[in-house]
Amino acid sequence: MSFCGNHLLSVDDLTKEDLLYLFDIAELMRPYANREKQTKVLDGAILGNMFFEASTRTRVSFGCAFNLLGGFVRETVGIHTSSLAKGESLYDTAKVMSGYSDIIVMRHPEAGSVAEFAGASRVPVINGGDGANEHPSQALLDLFTIRKELQIQGSRLDHLSIAMIGDLKHGRTVHSLSRLLTLFDGIRFRFIAPSDLQLPEDTIQEIKARGHEVKLSENLEEGLADADIIYQTRIQEERFSSQAEADRYRGKFRINQHTYSQFCQQTTVIMHPLPRDSRADANELDSDLNENPRLAIFRQSDNGVLVRMALFATILGVEKEVQQYECPIRWQSSKQF
Ligand code: NCD
Fold first, then answer.
1. Digit-coded pLDDT (tens) for 289-309
2. pTM of this prediction?
3. What's the gap in Å between 329 CA and the centre of ligand 1?
Protein backbone atom coordinates (compact mmCIF):
# COMPACT_ATOMS: atom_id res chain seq x y z
CA MET A 1 0.00 0.00 0.00
CA SER A 2 1.06 3.60 -0.30
CA PHE A 3 0.77 5.13 3.16
CA CYS A 4 0.01 8.62 1.87
CA GLY A 5 -3.66 9.51 2.34
CA ASN A 6 -4.67 5.97 3.32
CA HIS A 7 -6.21 4.34 6.38
CA LEU A 8 -4.23 1.80 8.40
CA LEU A 9 -6.83 -0.72 9.54
CA SER A 10 -5.18 -4.12 9.27
CA VAL A 11 -1.67 -5.50 8.90
CA ASP A 12 -3.00 -7.45 5.93
CA ASP A 13 -2.79 -4.21 3.92
CA LEU A 14 0.99 -4.04 4.35
CA THR A 15 3.81 -5.48 2.27
CA LYS A 16 7.37 -6.20 3.33
CA GLU A 17 8.51 -3.16 1.32
CA ASP A 18 6.04 -0.99 3.25
CA LEU A 19 7.51 -2.17 6.54
CA LEU A 20 11.09 -1.58 5.54
CA TYR A 21 10.23 1.89 4.24
CA LEU A 22 8.34 2.77 7.42
CA PHE A 23 11.16 1.48 9.64
CA ASP A 24 13.69 3.66 7.80
CA ILE A 25 11.49 6.68 8.44
CA ALA A 26 11.07 5.64 12.09
CA GLU A 27 14.87 5.69 12.49
CA LEU A 28 14.96 9.26 11.15
CA MET A 29 12.57 10.25 13.95
CA ARG A 30 14.97 9.27 16.73
CA PRO A 31 16.65 12.69 17.29
CA TYR A 32 13.23 14.33 17.65
CA ALA A 33 11.91 11.65 19.99
CA ASN A 34 15.17 11.92 21.97
CA ARG A 35 14.69 15.72 22.29
CA GLU A 36 17.94 16.50 20.50
CA LYS A 37 16.03 18.80 18.15
CA GLN A 38 12.42 19.46 17.19
CA THR A 39 10.46 19.68 13.97
CA LYS A 40 7.36 21.68 13.10
CA VAL A 41 6.51 19.76 9.95
CA LEU A 42 2.90 19.18 11.09
CA ASP A 43 2.42 22.69 12.49
CA GLY A 44 -1.31 23.42 12.23
CA ALA A 45 -2.42 19.82 11.69
CA ILE A 46 -4.93 18.27 14.10
CA LEU A 47 -5.07 14.67 15.29
CA GLY A 48 -8.42 13.35 16.52
CA ASN A 49 -7.29 10.82 19.14
CA MET A 50 -10.45 8.85 19.93
CA PHE A 51 -10.18 6.13 22.55
CA PHE A 52 -13.38 4.33 23.48
CA GLU A 53 -11.57 1.64 25.45
CA ALA A 54 -8.92 1.70 28.21
CA SER A 55 -5.48 2.80 27.07
CA THR A 56 -2.39 4.51 28.41
CA ARG A 57 0.62 3.97 26.15
CA THR A 58 -1.15 3.66 22.81
CA ARG A 59 -3.18 6.83 23.34
CA VAL A 60 -0.36 8.87 24.86
CA SER A 61 2.32 7.70 22.44
CA PHE A 62 0.13 8.50 19.44
CA GLY A 63 -0.50 11.94 20.97
CA CYS A 64 3.19 12.52 21.75
CA ALA A 65 4.21 11.36 18.28
CA PHE A 66 1.88 13.92 16.71
CA ASN A 67 3.08 16.66 19.07
CA LEU A 68 6.71 15.81 18.33
CA LEU A 69 5.98 16.50 14.65
CA GLY A 70 4.56 19.88 15.64
CA GLY A 71 0.84 19.01 15.40
CA PHE A 72 -2.07 19.51 17.83
CA VAL A 73 -3.98 16.70 19.51
CA ARG A 74 -7.71 16.64 20.37
CA GLU A 75 -8.72 13.74 22.56
CA THR A 76 -12.05 11.96 23.04
CA VAL A 77 -11.78 9.39 25.78
CA GLY A 78 -14.44 6.89 26.94
CA ILE A 79 -17.73 5.91 25.33
CA HIS A 80 -19.72 7.32 28.24
CA THR A 81 -18.44 10.87 27.78
CA SER A 82 -18.96 10.87 23.99
CA SER A 83 -22.08 11.11 21.83
CA LEU A 84 -21.88 7.36 21.14
CA ALA A 85 -23.49 7.11 24.60
CA LYS A 86 -26.45 9.14 23.22
CA GLY A 87 -27.02 6.60 20.46
CA GLU A 88 -24.99 8.28 17.74
CA SER A 89 -23.87 5.94 14.97
CA LEU A 90 -20.23 5.41 14.05
CA TYR A 91 -21.13 6.87 10.63
CA ASP A 92 -22.29 10.18 12.11
CA THR A 93 -19.40 10.37 14.57
CA ALA A 94 -16.97 9.77 11.70
CA LYS A 95 -18.53 12.46 9.52
CA VAL A 96 -18.39 14.99 12.35
CA MET A 97 -14.95 14.18 13.77
CA SER A 98 -13.27 13.94 10.38
CA GLY A 99 -14.54 17.47 9.73
CA TYR A 100 -12.49 18.64 12.71
CA SER A 101 -9.30 16.63 12.14
CA ASP A 102 -6.58 15.91 9.58
CA ILE A 103 -6.12 12.34 10.76
CA ILE A 104 -7.85 10.14 13.34
CA VAL A 105 -6.67 7.35 15.61
CA MET A 106 -9.49 5.27 17.00
CA ARG A 107 -9.78 2.47 19.54
CA HIS A 108 -13.11 0.75 20.11
CA PRO A 109 -14.21 -2.41 21.95
CA GLU A 110 -15.94 -3.99 18.94
CA ALA A 111 -14.12 -5.90 16.20
CA GLY A 112 -14.70 -4.23 12.83
CA SER A 113 -15.88 -0.94 14.33
CA VAL A 114 -12.81 1.07 13.30
CA ALA A 115 -13.17 -0.11 9.69
CA GLU A 116 -16.85 0.89 9.77
CA PHE A 117 -15.88 4.30 11.14
CA ALA A 118 -13.15 4.68 8.50
CA GLY A 119 -15.69 3.94 5.77
CA ALA A 120 -17.45 7.19 6.64
CA SER A 121 -14.39 9.26 7.58
CA ARG A 122 -13.21 12.10 5.36
CA VAL A 123 -9.62 11.77 6.62
CA PRO A 124 -7.25 8.81 7.14
CA VAL A 125 -7.97 6.60 10.15
CA ILE A 126 -5.46 4.47 12.07
CA ASN A 127 -6.82 1.48 13.94
CA GLY A 128 -5.69 1.85 17.56
CA GLY A 129 -7.23 -1.54 18.44
CA ASP A 130 -10.70 -2.87 17.56
CA GLY A 131 -11.87 -5.34 20.16
CA ALA A 132 -10.08 -8.68 19.95
CA ASN A 133 -9.43 -8.23 16.24
CA GLU A 134 -6.32 -6.19 15.37
CA HIS A 135 -3.81 -3.65 16.65
CA PRO A 136 -1.64 -2.84 13.63
CA SER A 137 0.48 -0.03 15.06
CA GLN A 138 1.45 -2.21 18.04
CA ALA A 139 2.48 -4.99 15.65
CA LEU A 140 4.60 -2.50 13.72
CA LEU A 141 6.40 -1.29 16.82
CA ASP A 142 6.83 -4.88 18.01
CA LEU A 143 8.33 -5.91 14.70
CA PHE A 144 10.55 -2.81 14.63
CA THR A 145 11.77 -3.79 18.11
CA ILE A 146 12.36 -7.45 17.19
CA ARG A 147 14.36 -6.41 14.15
CA LYS A 148 16.46 -4.00 16.23
CA GLU A 149 17.09 -6.50 19.04
CA LEU A 150 18.13 -9.15 16.52
CA GLN A 151 20.37 -6.71 14.64
CA ILE A 152 22.25 -6.03 17.89
CA GLN A 153 22.84 -9.79 18.16
CA GLY A 154 23.92 -9.96 14.49
CA SER A 155 20.89 -11.96 13.37
CA ARG A 156 17.86 -11.37 11.14
CA LEU A 157 14.11 -11.69 11.15
CA ASP A 158 14.06 -14.56 8.66
CA HIS A 159 13.94 -17.99 10.34
CA LEU A 160 13.49 -16.57 13.83
CA SER A 161 11.74 -18.61 16.49
CA ILE A 162 9.09 -16.75 18.50
CA ALA A 163 7.11 -18.05 21.47
CA MET A 164 3.80 -16.21 21.87
CA ILE A 165 2.30 -16.89 25.25
CA GLY A 166 -0.96 -16.27 27.12
CA ASP A 167 -4.38 -15.23 25.87
CA LEU A 168 -3.82 -15.76 22.16
CA LYS A 169 -7.53 -16.02 21.43
CA HIS A 170 -8.39 -12.46 22.49
CA GLY A 171 -4.97 -10.83 22.16
CA ARG A 172 -5.24 -8.45 19.21
CA THR A 173 -1.53 -7.62 19.39
CA VAL A 174 -0.75 -11.30 18.83
CA HIS A 175 -3.20 -11.51 15.94
CA SER A 176 -1.58 -8.57 14.18
CA LEU A 177 2.05 -9.44 14.98
CA SER A 178 1.79 -13.08 13.93
CA ARG A 179 0.25 -12.09 10.60
CA LEU A 180 2.87 -9.41 10.02
CA LEU A 181 5.71 -11.83 10.70
CA THR A 182 4.46 -14.11 7.92
CA LEU A 183 5.89 -11.56 5.45
CA PHE A 184 9.35 -12.88 6.36
CA ASP A 185 10.83 -16.31 5.59
CA GLY A 186 10.61 -19.52 7.57
CA ILE A 187 9.34 -18.12 10.88
CA ARG A 188 9.06 -20.75 13.62
CA PHE A 189 5.97 -19.95 15.68
CA ARG A 190 5.34 -21.50 19.10
CA PHE A 191 1.89 -20.63 20.41
CA ILE A 192 1.65 -21.41 24.11
CA ALA A 193 -1.82 -21.06 25.61
CA PRO A 194 -4.51 -23.02 27.44
CA SER A 195 -6.38 -24.85 24.65
CA ASP A 196 -9.46 -22.63 25.17
CA LEU A 197 -7.33 -19.52 24.59
CA GLN A 198 -5.32 -20.68 21.57
CA LEU A 199 -4.84 -18.53 18.49
CA PRO A 200 -7.95 -18.56 16.24
CA GLU A 201 -7.89 -21.51 13.84
CA ASP A 202 -8.15 -19.38 10.68
CA THR A 203 -5.00 -17.46 11.67
CA ILE A 204 -3.13 -20.71 12.38
CA GLN A 205 -4.14 -22.09 8.99
CA GLU A 206 -3.11 -18.91 7.23
CA ILE A 207 0.32 -18.91 8.87
CA LYS A 208 0.84 -22.55 7.89
CA ALA A 209 -0.37 -21.91 4.34
CA ARG A 210 2.33 -19.26 4.00
CA GLY A 211 4.93 -21.93 4.74
CA HIS A 212 5.84 -21.22 8.36
CA GLU A 213 6.33 -23.74 11.15
CA VAL A 214 3.61 -23.75 13.82
CA LYS A 215 3.77 -25.60 17.13
CA LEU A 216 0.92 -25.35 19.62
CA SER A 217 1.51 -26.16 23.26
CA GLU A 218 0.04 -25.87 26.72
CA ASN A 219 3.48 -26.29 28.21
CA LEU A 220 5.51 -23.15 28.87
CA GLU A 221 8.92 -24.79 29.29
CA GLU A 222 8.56 -26.74 26.07
CA GLY A 223 7.68 -23.57 24.13
CA LEU A 224 10.53 -21.50 25.55
CA ALA A 225 13.24 -24.01 24.73
CA ASP A 226 14.47 -22.70 21.36
CA ALA A 227 12.83 -19.25 21.33
CA ASP A 228 14.78 -16.25 20.04
CA ILE A 229 11.90 -14.03 21.14
CA ILE A 230 9.40 -14.48 23.96
CA TYR A 231 6.19 -12.49 23.45
CA GLN A 232 4.29 -12.72 26.71
CA THR A 233 0.72 -11.38 26.99
CA ARG A 234 -1.90 -10.59 29.61
CA ILE A 235 -5.17 -12.49 30.03
CA GLN A 236 -7.57 -10.05 28.31
CA GLU A 237 -10.08 -10.13 31.16
CA GLU A 238 -12.29 -7.46 29.58
CA ARG A 239 -13.13 -9.92 26.76
CA PHE A 240 -14.48 -12.67 29.05
CA SER A 241 -18.14 -13.09 30.01
CA SER A 242 -17.25 -12.75 33.71
CA GLN A 243 -14.28 -11.99 35.94
CA ALA A 244 -14.53 -15.50 37.39
CA GLU A 245 -14.13 -16.94 33.90
CA ALA A 246 -10.98 -14.85 33.26
CA ASP A 247 -9.58 -15.72 36.70
CA ARG A 248 -9.46 -19.40 35.68
CA TYR A 249 -6.55 -18.56 33.39
CA ARG A 250 -4.70 -15.83 35.25
CA GLY A 251 -1.28 -16.79 36.55
CA LYS A 252 -1.05 -19.95 34.44
CA PHE A 253 2.09 -18.99 32.50
CA ARG A 254 4.45 -16.94 34.62
CA ILE A 255 7.94 -16.00 33.54
CA ASN A 256 10.53 -14.87 36.07
CA GLN A 257 14.33 -14.83 36.19
CA HIS A 258 14.42 -18.43 37.38
CA THR A 259 12.26 -19.67 34.47
CA TYR A 260 14.39 -17.62 32.10
CA SER A 261 17.72 -18.99 33.38
CA GLN A 262 16.39 -22.55 33.35
CA PHE A 263 14.65 -22.72 29.97
CA CYS A 264 15.79 -19.87 27.71
CA GLN A 265 18.93 -19.19 25.76
CA GLN A 266 21.11 -16.39 27.12
CA THR A 267 20.17 -14.23 24.16
CA THR A 268 16.39 -14.75 24.24
CA VAL A 269 14.64 -11.38 24.03
CA ILE A 270 11.68 -10.86 26.36
CA MET A 271 8.78 -8.79 25.03
CA HIS A 272 5.24 -7.88 26.14
CA PRO A 273 2.89 -5.33 24.54
CA LEU A 274 2.15 -4.01 28.06
CA PRO A 275 0.46 -3.44 30.40
CA ARG A 276 1.83 -6.46 32.24
CA ASP A 277 -0.54 -7.59 34.96
CA SER A 278 1.63 -7.32 38.05
CA ARG A 279 -1.02 -8.41 40.55
CA ALA A 280 0.13 -11.36 42.63
CA ASP A 281 -2.40 -13.80 41.14
CA ALA A 282 -1.34 -12.96 37.56
CA ASN A 283 2.26 -11.66 37.40
CA GLU A 284 2.94 -13.05 33.93
CA LEU A 285 6.28 -11.21 33.70
CA ASP A 286 7.94 -10.87 37.08
CA SER A 287 9.63 -7.65 38.18
CA ASP A 288 12.75 -9.69 39.02
CA LEU A 289 13.42 -9.54 35.25
CA ASN A 290 13.66 -5.73 35.34
CA GLU A 291 17.45 -5.70 35.28
CA ASN A 292 17.72 -8.48 32.70
CA PRO A 293 19.37 -6.82 29.67
CA ARG A 294 17.20 -8.90 27.32
CA LEU A 295 13.99 -7.43 28.75
CA ALA A 296 12.89 -5.23 25.83
CA ILE A 297 9.49 -4.06 27.11
CA PHE A 298 10.47 -0.44 27.68
CA ARG A 299 12.44 -0.32 24.45
CA GLN A 300 9.17 -1.45 22.83
CA SER A 301 7.22 1.42 24.40
CA ASP A 302 9.94 3.94 23.42
CA ASN A 303 9.98 2.56 19.87
CA GLY A 304 6.22 3.07 19.73
CA VAL A 305 6.77 6.83 19.47
CA LEU A 306 9.22 6.46 16.56
CA VAL A 307 6.95 4.13 14.62
CA ARG A 308 3.86 6.26 15.25
CA MET A 309 5.73 9.40 14.16
CA ALA A 310 6.68 7.54 10.98
CA LEU A 311 3.04 6.54 10.42
CA PHE A 312 1.79 10.11 10.77
CA ALA A 313 4.55 11.51 8.56
CA THR A 314 4.01 8.99 5.77
CA ILE A 315 0.19 9.01 5.88
CA LEU A 316 0.18 12.82 5.80
CA GLY A 317 2.87 12.81 3.10
CA VAL A 318 5.54 14.90 4.87
CA GLU A 319 8.21 12.29 5.57
CA LYS A 320 10.69 13.95 3.21
CA GLU A 321 10.21 17.40 4.77
CA VAL A 322 10.74 16.59 8.44
CA GLN A 323 14.29 18.00 8.51
CA GLN A 324 13.39 21.09 6.53
CA TYR A 325 11.12 22.25 9.38
CA GLU A 326 13.48 21.48 12.20
CA CYS A 327 14.58 23.85 14.96
CA PRO A 328 16.70 23.57 18.11
CA ILE A 329 15.50 22.48 21.53
CA ARG A 330 15.52 25.39 23.99
CA TRP A 331 15.06 23.51 27.24
CA GLN A 332 17.45 21.35 29.22
CA SER A 333 16.58 17.69 28.67
CA SER A 334 18.28 15.22 30.95
CA LYS A 335 16.26 12.26 29.72
CA GLN A 336 18.29 9.09 29.20
CA PHE A 337 17.62 6.89 26.17
C1 NCD B 1 -2.54 -4.06 24.31
C2 NCD B 1 -3.95 -3.83 23.80
O3 NCD B 1 -4.60 -2.87 24.17
O4 NCD B 1 -4.36 -4.66 22.99
N5 NCD B 1 -1.99 -2.94 24.93
C6 NCD B 1 -1.41 -2.00 24.14
O7 NCD B 1 -2.04 -1.38 23.32
N8 NCD B 1 -0.08 -1.83 24.29
C9 NCD B 1 -2.39 -5.31 25.10
C10 NCD B 1 -3.20 -5.48 26.36
O11 NCD B 1 -4.00 -4.63 26.73
O12 NCD B 1 -3.01 -6.51 27.00
1. 999 999 999 999 999 999 999
2. 0.97
3. 32
